[in-house]
User: Fold this.
Amino acid sequence: TKSFCADLARFATSSAEKKALQKMASAEGAEDWKKIVDASQSFFDVCKQFPSARVPLDQLISILPLTKPRLYSIASSPFYAQGVLDLTIVINQWKAASDGHVVTGACTRFIQ
Assistant:
């Protein structure tokens, strides 16, 4: 999120990285922000891109947004089999708009 970039900028010791993060969090940095979104970068990816922004763990936990609960729908079937549980699971992968590399959803990694 843009607010994550603004918070991360507070910890950057490199003035160039600090300015880049602040710009990305502002309306002026819309193009730079779009590149991050199009590349489907994670918070970890953004942190790696700005190595001088070393955030203490307790602070990092406070600036990372909470993971939102995911709502699931139930697949149903008219065929009932006692003692059988059928699951419908989706593997969530997509190509990043920036360069077409394959991005895997956060929870998909646990079921692959």
